[in-house]
C-alpha cells in the first residue's frame, strides 16, 4: 500500500474540503496558501513516485488499494490506484502546471467575491483529474472522468450570474454527457466480454475476446473521448467554455482535462491496438486539427482563437496515437500543456490589464506597455507553430514522422497543412493583440503583477527548452521513459535517419514559416482584411453549430415545449381540472334538492317511509 | 254497548282530526285537538288502560293543550297562508296526497291480513290500573323513568331560556336595533 | 258484538295519516305542531291496542313515556317558536329556509 500514491490524490482533495468548508472564514491569504500548497505537495509526491519508477523496471507500478466497491460473483471492482510510468508523466504535468496556474490565480482572482469557492473548485478539479490518472481500473477512471466534467461545469459557470456563463456551463455538461453515455456503454461492453475492468486484467484477457466486441468497445470509448477532449463531433462546448476565468481555461481546457481522452487511449493501448480502431482515431484527430485551425483564423475573441487552437492541437495528439505512436501523443500533450497554458495566461494578463477586454479588433499596441506579457505570448506562439528549437517543434515532429512512417500520407499532408494554418492564425492573433497601432491610443494598460509573472516565466522557459526532452540528439529521455508502456506499438518510432527525417522536418517547418509570412503580410500594422464569404463560413465554424441547432436543439426544444404545453398543461392539467369541474357540476346539480323548505324535506321522509313500509309489508 | 261507544268515540276522533288539519285559525285547530284528545281517552278506557286515559286528560288535554292556547294567544300573528308562498307548490300537495293514500292502503291491507281474527288476551285483574302500571314503572322501566325525569328537567330549563325576551343591549353599531338573526336566505 | 281490535289499529292509521298530511300541507307553524301531536296520539292508540292484544303492560308503559316526551317536546318547541316570532314577526314555515344549499 503505497501512501505516496494516495497522498497525490488526497492532498488536493483535502485542500478542496478545507477551502470549501472554512474558506469563508479563513481570509484570502490562507485560502491561497492552502490551495497552492496542496498542489505543490502533490507535485512533490509525484516527483518521489517518478524517481522510484525511473529506478525500477519499466513495468513496475506503485499501487494502493482502498477497499472493495463491486463484488458480484466473479466480477470485482475495487477502489484502487496505480502509479506507473504513464501515470507518472501525467501526474507531473497536471500538478506541475496546475501549481503554476494556482499561483497565477492568486493574482488574477484577487478581490473576487467568491475567492474561496474558486480555489475549492480548482483543488477539487486537480484531485478529480489525479483520480482519473491514477485509477487502477476503468470504473475508478470513469469516476474521475465524471468528476472533472462536474468541476468543468462549476468553473465554466463560475460567474453564474452572467447568463452566458451559465449557459456555457450547461452546454459543456450536456455535450459531455452524450459522450459519457457512449463511454459507459463501452465500459459495460468490456465488463461483459472480458469479465474485468482492471487495466492489468484487461490486458491479459484481450486475446480471448471476440474482435467485434473489442472494436465496438474501443469505438464507444473513443466517442466518449471526443466529448471530453473536444474533437469532432462533440467539440462545440469548448469555445463557449471560455466564459470561465482565464486560469481555468488554461488549466482545464488546455493542459489537463481536455487531454483526458488522449490519456485514455494511451492507458488502454493494448485494447486499441488489438481492436484496429487506431486508424479511426488518427483520422478523427487529423480532420479535427485542420477544421479547428481554419476556424481559428476568423475568430475575433482572443480566447476563442486559443480554444480552437486547443481543439486543433488535441487533434494532433490523437493523430499521433492513431499513427501508432503513443509516445508522440503523450509528448505533444506535455509540450502543449506548457505553451498553451503560457498563451492563455498571457491572454489573461491582457484581460486583467484591460478589465476583461478580449476582442482582438479593439486591442493592439500592448507590446510597449506590457513587454513581459508580449514576450511570453510570442514564445508561446512560436512554440505552437513548431519552429525549432522550441518545444512545439519536437513534439509535432514526433507525430508527423510517425504518421508518415505508418504510410498515412494523406493525414501527414493534413498535418503539414494544419501546421501552416496554425502559424497563420497565431501570428494574426499576436499582431492584432500586441502590435502597433493600438485601437485606442488613450489606453494605459499595466503589466501583470509578479505573482502572475512568475508562473508565466516558468512556462516560458519550459515552452522554449521543454522539447529537448524528446530530442534524439540528447538521447530522448522522454521517449525512453515511456516507450515500454507502449510495448505493443505496431511500428516503433523509427530512429531519425538522416535525409528522410530532415525532409519531413523541413516540410512542416517550411509550412509554419510560410504561415507566419502570410500572417505578417496580411496583418502587420493591425490591418484587418476582409475575408468575404470564406471568412463568414470560417467564423461560423463551417456552420457545424448551426447544423446542430437545426437538427438537434430545435426539435428537442419543440418536443419539450409540446410536452410542457400540450401534454402537461392541456391534457394532464385539463384532466385534473376537468375532473374537478365534473364534480362541481354534479354538486351543483345535487344542490337543487337543498331547497331549505322543511315541508319538502318532510315529504321526502314520508315517501321514504312509504317505500320502506311497502317493501316490508309486501315481502 | 261497547261497540256503540267505540263507534262514537272513533268517529269523533276522526272528525276532530280533520278539524285540526283543516282549520283556518289556530284556535279552531286547538279546539278540534281537544275533541280528539278526549275521544281518544274514551277509547283508551275501552282498552282497559285507565291510568293512561286519565293521564291523557290531565296532562295532554289539561296542560299541553292549554299551553298551546296560551302561545296562540301570545302570537296573534296574521295568517301566513293568506299570502302566496315561495315554497313548494302544487306538485308537493300531490305527492303528499299520493304518499298518504299509499300508506293507508298498504297498512290497511297489512292490518286486515294479519290482524283479522285478533282476539284480546286474557288478562289478570288490575290490568291497566295505576297500581299495576306503577309496579312496572318502578321495576322493569325504572331506568327510562329516571331518564324521563332528567328529560323533563332539561325541558323546563330549555323552555325558560328559549322563552326569555331578548335583552335590550346597548347597540355597538350606529343603528339602534339589536342584532338581527338571519332567518331566511331568500330575503326577509 | 265486540269490536275487533283491528278496527282500533285502523283508526290509529287514519289519524296518523291525517296528522302527516297536516304537517306537509299547512304553513302555519302552530298548526303543524298540532298535527304532530295528532300523530303522536295515534301512535299511543296503537300501542295500547297491542298491549290489550297481548296482555302485556309494556305497551301501556310505552304510551306513558310517549306522553312524557310529547310534553317536553311541546314546551321546547313552542318556546323556540315564540323566540323566532319575536325576531321575525312570522310563523310561516316556508320563510325558514336557511338550510338552502
The share of residues in helices of chain A is: over 70%
Number of helices of chain A: 25
* Head-to-tail CA distance between termini of chain A: 93 Å
Main sheet makeup of chain A: 2 strands, antiparallel
**What amount of the residues of chain A lies in strands?**
under 5%
Provide the residue-averaged pLDDT of chain B. 84
Mean pLDDT of chain A: 88
Describe the structure in your own words.
The complex is a heterotrimer of chains A (619), B (188) and C (101). Chain A has 619 residues and is mainly α. Chain A is 74% helix and 3% strand. In chain A, helix 2 runs parallel beside helix 4, helix 4 packs antiparallel against helix 5 (138-156) and helix 6 packs antiparallel against helix 8 (211-228). Chain A starts with a helix and ends with a helix. Chain B has helices at residues 2-22, 26-46, 50-74, 90-114, 130-138, 142-163. Chain B has 188 residues and is an all-alpha fold. The mean pLDDT of chain B is 84. The N and C termini of chain B lie far apart (57 Å). Chain C has a single domain (5-88), classed as Helix Hairpins. Chains in contact: A-B, A-C, B-C. Chains B and C meet through helix 1, helix 2, helix 3, helix 4 and helix 5 of B and helix 1, helix 2 and helix 3 of C.
Topology:
The complex is a heterotrimer of chains A (619), B (188) and C (101).
Chain A lengths: L2 H24 L1 H28 L6 E11 L2 E9 L1 H24 L6 H20 L3 H19 L6 H32 L4 H7 L5 H18 L8 H4 L5 H10 L4 H8 L1 H7 L2 H20 L4 H21 L3 H28 L12 H4 L1 H15 L5 H15 L3 H26 L15 H16 L11 H6 L15 H26 L8 H8 L4 H48 L6 H21 L1
Antiparallel strand pairs in A: 1-2
Helix pairs in contact in A: 1-2, 1-4, 2-3, 2-4, 3-4, 3-10, 3-15, 3-20, 4-5, 5-6, 6-8, 8-11, 8-12, 10-15, 11-15, 13-14, 13-19, 13-23, 14-15, 14-18, 14-19, 15-17, 15-18, 15-20, 17-19, 17-20, 18-19, 18-22, 19-22
Chain B lengths: L1 H21 L3 H21 L3 H25 L15 H25 L15 H9 L3 H22 L25
Chain C lengths: L4 H21 L3 H26 L3 H31 L13
In short:
The complex is a heterotrimer of chains A (619), B (188) and C (101). Chain B is mostly helical.
Amino acid at each position: 500500500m503505497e501512501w505516496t500514491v494516495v497522498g497525490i490524490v488526497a492532498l488536493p482533495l483535502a485542500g478542496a474540503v478545507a477551502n470549501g468548508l472554512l474558506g469563508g472564514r479563513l481570509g484570502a491569504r490562507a485560502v491561497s496558501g492552502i490551495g497552492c500548497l496542496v498542489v505543490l505537495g502533490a507535485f512533490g509526491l509525484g516527483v518521489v513516485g517518478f524517481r522510484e519508477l525511473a529506478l525500477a523496471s519499466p513495468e513496475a507500478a506503485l499501487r494502493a488499494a482502498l477497499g472493495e466497491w463491486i463484488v458480484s460473483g466473479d466480477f470485482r471492482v475495487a477502489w484502487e490506484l496505480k502509479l506507473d510510468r504513464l501515470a507518472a508523466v501525467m501526474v507531473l504535468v497536471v500538478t506541475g502546471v496546475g501549481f503554476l496556474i494556482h499561483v497565477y490565480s492568486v493574482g488574477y482572482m484577487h478581490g473576487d467575491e467568491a475567492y474561496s469557492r474558486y480555489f475549492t473548485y480548482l483543488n477539487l478539479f486537480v484531485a478529480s483529474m489525479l483520480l482519473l490518472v491514477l485509477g487502477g481500473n476503468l470504473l475508478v477512471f470513469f469516476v474521475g472522468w465524471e468528476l472533472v466534467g462536474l468541476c468543468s461545469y462549476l468553473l465554466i459557470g463560475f460567474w453564474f450570474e452572467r447568463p452566458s456563463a451559465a449557459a456555457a456551463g450547461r452546454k459543456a455538461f450536456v455535450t459531455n454527457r452524450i459522450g459519457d453515455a457512449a463511454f459507459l456503454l463501452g465500459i459495460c461492453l468490456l465488463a461483459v466480454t472480458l469479465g474485468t475492468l482492471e487495466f492489468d486484467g484487461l490486458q491479459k484477457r484481450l486475446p480471448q475476446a471476440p474482435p467485434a466486441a473489442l472494436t465496438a468497445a474501443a469505438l464507444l470509448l473513443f466517442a466518449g473521448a471526443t466529448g471530453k477532449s473536444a474533437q469532432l463531433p462533440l467539440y462545440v462546448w469548448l469555445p463557449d467554455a471560455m466564459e470561465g476565468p482565464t486560469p481555468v481555461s488554461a488549466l482545464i481546457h488546455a493542459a489537463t482535462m481536455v487531454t483526458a481522452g488522449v490519456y485514455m487511449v494511451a492507458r488502454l493501448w493494448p485494447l486499441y491496438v488489438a481492436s484496429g480502431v487506431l486508424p479511426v482515431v488518427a483520422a478523427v484527430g487529423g480532420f479535427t486539427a485542420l477544421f479547428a485551425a481554419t476556424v481559428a483564423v476568423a475568430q475575433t475573441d482572443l480566447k476563442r482563437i486559443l480554444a480552437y487552437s486547443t481543439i486543433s492541437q488535441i487533434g494532433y495528439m490523437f493523430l499521433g496515437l492513431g499513427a501508432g505512436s503513443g509516445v508522440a501523443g503523450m509528448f505533444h500533450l506535455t509540450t502543449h500543456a506548457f505553451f498553451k497554458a503560457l498563451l492563455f495566461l498571457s491572454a489573461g494578463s491582457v484581460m486583467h490589464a484591460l478589465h476583461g477586454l478580449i476582442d482582438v479588433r479593439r486591442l493592439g499596441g500592448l507590446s510597449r506597455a506590457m513587454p513581459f506579457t508580449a514576450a511570453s505570448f510570442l514564445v508561446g506562439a512560436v512554440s505552437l507553430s513548431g519552429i525549432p528549437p522550441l518545444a512545439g517543434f519536437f513534439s509535432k515532429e514526433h507525430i508527423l514522422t510517425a504518421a508518415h512512417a505508418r504510410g498515412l500520407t494523406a493525414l501527414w499532408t493534413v498535418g503539414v497543412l494544419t501546421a501552416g494554418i496554425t502559424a497563420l492564425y497565431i501570428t494574426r492573433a499576436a499582431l492584432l493583440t500586441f502590435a502597433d497601432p493600438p485601437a485606442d491610443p488613450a489606453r494605459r494598460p499595466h503589466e501583470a503583477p509578479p505573482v502572475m509573472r512568475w508562473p508565466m516565466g516558468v512556462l516560458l522557459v519550459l515552452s522554449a527548452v521543454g522539447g529537448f526532452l524528446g530530442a534524439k540528439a540528447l538521447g530522448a529521455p522522454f521517449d525512453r521513459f515511456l516507450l515500454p508502456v507502449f510495448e505493443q506499438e505496431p511500428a516503433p518510432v523509427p530512429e531519425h535517419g538522416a535525409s528522410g527525417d530532415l525532409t519531413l522536418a523541413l516540410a512542416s517547418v517550411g509550412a509554419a514559416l510560410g504561415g507566419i509570412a502570410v500572417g505578417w503580410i496580411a496583418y502587420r500594422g493591425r490591418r484587418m482584411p476582409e475575408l468575404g464569404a470564406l471568412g463568414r463560413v470560417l467564423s461560423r465554424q463551417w456552420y457545424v453549430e448551426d447544423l446542430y441547432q437545426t437538427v438537434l436543439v430545435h426539435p428537442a426544444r419543440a418536443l419539450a415545449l409540446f410536452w410542457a404545453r400540450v401534454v402537461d398543461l392541456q391534457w394532464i392539467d385539463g384532466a385534473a381540472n376537468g375532473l374537478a369541474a365534473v364534480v362541481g357540476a354534479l354538486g351543483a346539480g345535487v344542490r337543487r334538492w337543498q331547497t331549505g323548505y322543511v315541508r319538502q324535506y318532510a315529504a321526502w321522509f314520508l315517501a321514504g317511509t312509504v317505500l320502506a313500509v311497502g317493501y316490508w309489508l309486501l315481502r | 254497548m261497547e261497540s256503540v261507544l267505540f263507534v262514537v268515540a272513533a268517529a269523533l276522533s276522526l272528525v276532530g282530526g280533520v278539524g285540526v288539519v283543516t282549520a283556518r285559525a289556530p284556535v279552531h285547530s286547538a279546539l278540534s285537538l281537544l275533541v280528539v284528545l278526549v275521544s281518544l281517552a274514551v277509547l283508551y278506557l275501552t282498552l282497559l288502560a285507565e291510568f293512561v286515559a286519565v293521564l291523557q286528560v290531565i296532562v295532554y288535554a289539561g296542560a299541553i293543550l292549554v299551553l298551546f292556547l296560551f302561545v296562540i294567544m301570545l302570537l296573534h300573528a296574521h295568517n301566513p297562508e293568506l299570502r302566496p308562498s315561495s315554497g313548494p307548490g302544487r306538485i308537493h300537495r300531490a305527492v303528499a296526497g299520493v304518499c298518504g293514500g299509499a300508506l293507508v292502503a298498504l297498512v290497511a291491507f297489512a292490518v286486515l291480513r294479519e290482524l283479522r281474527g285478533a282476539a284480546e288476551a286474557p288478562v289478570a285483574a288490575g290490568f291497566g290500573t295505576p297500581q299495576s302500571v306503577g309496579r312496572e314503572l318502578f321495576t322493569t322501566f325504572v331506568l327510562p323513568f329516571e331518564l324521563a325525569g332528567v328529560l323533563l328537567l332539561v325541558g323546563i330549563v330549555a323552555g325558560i331560556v328559549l322563552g326569555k325576551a331578548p335583552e335590550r343591549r346597548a347597540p355597538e353599531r350606529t343603528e339602534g336595533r339589536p342584532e338581527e338573526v338571519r332567518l331566511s336566505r331568500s330575503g326577509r | 258484538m265486540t269490536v275487533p281490535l283491528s278496527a282500533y289499529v285502523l283508526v290509529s292509521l287514519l289519524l296518523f295519516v291525517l296528522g302527516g298530511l297536516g304537517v306537509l300541507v299547512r304553513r302555519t307553524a302552530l298548526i303543524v305542531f298540532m298535527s304532530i301531536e295528532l300523530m303522536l296520539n295515534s301512535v299511543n292508540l296503537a300501542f295500547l291496542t297491542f298491549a290489550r292484544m297481548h296482555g302485556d303492560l309494556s305497551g301501556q308503559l310505552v304510551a306513558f313515556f310517549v306522553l312524557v316526551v310529547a310534553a317536553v317536546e311541546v314546551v321546547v318547541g313552542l318556546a323556540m317558536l315564540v323566540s323566532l316570532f319575536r325576531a321575525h314577526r312570522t310563523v310561516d314555515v316556508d320563510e325558514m329556509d336557511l338550510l338552502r344549499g
